[in-house]
Design brief:
- The protein has about 70 residues and is mostly helical.
- The protein has one domain.
- The protein contains three helices and no strands.
- α1 crosses α2.
């Protein structure tokens, strides 16, 4: 749990800075988006291991980048 918190903090900070500069659109606060990205990525990584393909990671990346670009 502590490792996830340490990983989330810099991600949330980067998202907040990018949002403040107008580089990404976010309708939720940076910490919540960071949690969402972290949770989704962990699920995609697990699925990639099970399926032995990177398709889930590619799909996750495409969707997250699309959400951030709105």
């Amino acid at each position: 749990s502590e490792a996830f918190r340490r990983w989330r903090a810099p991600l949330a900070g980067a998202l907040a800075r990018a949002q403040a500069r107008g580089e990404i659109a976010m309708t939720v606060e940076a910490a919540v988006m960071a949690d969402f990205i972290q949770n989704g990525l962990q699920g995609a990584l697990l699925r990639a291991k099970v399926d032995r393909t990177s398709a889930s990671i590619d799909q996750f990346k495409m969707i997250v980048l699309n959400l951030l670009a709105r």
